[in-house]
Design a protein that fits this description.
The chain has about 375 residues and is an alpha/beta fold. It has two domains: about 80 residues, GMP Synthetase, Chain A, domain 3, CATH 3.30.300; about 260 residues, Rossmann fold (3-Layer(aba) Sandwich). About 35% of the residues lie in helices and about 20% in strands. An eight-stranded mixed β-sheet has the order 8-9-5-10-4-11-12-15, with helices on both faces. Strands 1-2-3 form a three-stranded mixed β-sheet, covered by helices on one side. The chain has a two-stranded antiparallel sheet with strand order 6-7. A hairpin with a 2-residue loop joins strand 1 and strand 2. Helix 6 packs across helix 7 and helix 8 packs parallel to helix 9. The structure holds adenosine-5'-triphosphate and magnesium ion. Adenosine-5'-triphosphate (ATP) binds next to helix 4. Binds and transfers iron-sulfur (Fe-S) clusters to target apoproteins. Can hydrolyze ATP. Belongs to the Mrp/NBP35 ATP-binding proteins family. Keywords: ATP-binding, Hydrolase, Iron, Iron-sulfur, Metal-binding, Nucleotide-binding. This is Iron-sulfur cluster carrier protein. Homodimer.
């Protein structure tokens, strides 16, 4: 015989599509009516209109209920009231039900997430390009990856990844947007304030802190942080907030660019943070013959890595992504994993893993 207890037990296997938590604990199941083998459910969705995900969600509910013997199932969907949303946000913030999420503990000392800040002394050398493609390469390997676009004024990640979707907000809690398997948050997702001056000083720090603490991050292996150019306020804030973060320095081959990058690197060293290494971007032109033409000189990044006592991780050639390879061709900075660039970013991901998680695993075994 079907009972409410059995139905609830079965519904625990169904996850809410955005939060990836079971719908019973999230209080989405509002009422259950059972008449012999017919089940009537009232469900309260977090917000209206996630239609593409809703179809799978409905199907999953029907599947688990059929498996316990239901013959007909009717579902009625409502949207949570503001009060219900606020209660849910509180519950999520307190992580009372967040068994496989991290919530506020992202900043916790015991968090298993490796933070990687991508910086450079100079603007326009490819920090965002490197951050985005490293994130996608790590996600392609199955790692759980988050990306914070910490360039609050000059954000570029949403456009680079072709993200047009806005994040889901539950009361004051924001859910990151997922693209190519990477969970992303950027100032570009929010309405811009009318007075840009507001965003100087304390507001800037607050926004950044909100990105870490006000966003409902799932459990992550890697959190990549795309820094604005230079060694300014945001870089310092990040370094204070995340003393354990590791750094990747991006530079172009020109000696001047690498000298400036050295400043970012020496700041990391002064702050006793670990440098993962240097990525040289726009290193060469790949000729049709397969030869590499080093138009900006050859040894800049090697010298930079030597002077910082670290490794030159990869050299990325000049070249635009091949847009045809992705279904959405507006992700103008994401290289296909099988392109020359994609393979180089895959190699970068491997090196990053070896220098971070792998060493952690080895330490755990010892
Ligand atoms: N290897 C490359 N080949 C060709 N174009 C590239 C390459 N790397 C980056 N670019 C392009 O150069 C421009 C600057 O790159 P990007 O925005 O990644 O630099 P950035 O260091 O993040 O800049 P900012 O300091 O403004 O944040 C972008 O238009 C990007 O698409
Ligand atoms: Mg940038």
């Amino acid at each position: 015989m079907l009972t409410k207890g059995k139905v609830l037990r079965a519904l625990k296997q169904v996850e809410e599509p955005d939060l990836r938590q079971n719908i019973v604990d999230l209080n989405i199941v509002k009422s259950i009516k059972i008449k012999r083998k017919n089940i009537d459910l009232d469900l309260s969705l977090i917000t209206q209109g996630y239609s593409s995900k809703k179809a799978n969600f409905e199907e999953k509910i029907k599947e688990v209920l059929s498996s316990i013997g239901a013959k007909s199932i009717s579902l009625r969907f409502n949207t949570m009231t503001k009060k219900e949303q606020a209660d849910l946000a509180e519950k999520l913030k307190g992580s009372k039900i967040a068994s496989n999420t991290q919530g506020p503990s992202l900043m916790n000392r015991n968090s298993q997430t490796t933070f990687i800040a991508v910086s450079s002394g100079k603007g326009g050398v490819g920090k965002s390009t490197v951050t985005v493609n490293l994130a996608v390469a790590l996600a392609n390997q199955g790692w759980r990856v988050g990306l914070i676009d910490a360039d609050i004024y000059g954000y570029s990640v949403p456009q680079m990844m072709g993200i047009t979707e806005k994040p889901l907000m539950i009361d004051s809690l924001t859910l990151p947007v997922e693209k190519y398997g990477v969970k992303v948050i950027s100032m570009g997702f929010f309405n811009q304030p009318e007075e840009p001056v507001m965003w100087r000083g304390p507001m800037l720090g607050k926004t950044l802190r909100y990105f870490f603490e006000g966003v409902y991050w799932p459990k992550l292996d890697y959190m990549l942080i795309d820094l604005p150019p230079g060694t300014g306020d945001i870089a310092l804030d990040i370094h204070t907030m995340l003393p354990r973060s590791k750094d990747i320095i991006v530079s172009t081959p020109q000696t001047t660019a690498s000298h400036i990058a050295e400043r970012a690197g020496s700041m990391a060293i002064r702050n006793k943070r670990e440098l993962i290494g240097v990525v040289e971007n726009m290193s060469y032109l790949l000729l049709a013959t397969g030869e590499k033409e080093y138009i900006f000189g050859k040894n800049g990044a090697t010298e930079l890595a030597n002077s910082l006592d670290t490794e030159l991780l990869v050299q990325v050639p000049i070249g635009a992504p091949n847009h045809q390879s992705f279904d959405s061709n507006d992700a103008y900075a994401v290289y296909h994993s099988e392109s020359v660039h994609g393979e180089i970013f895959g190699e970068l991901a491997d090196k990053v893993i070896l220098k971070t998680s792998y060493s952690k695993a080895v330490q755990e075994v010892q």
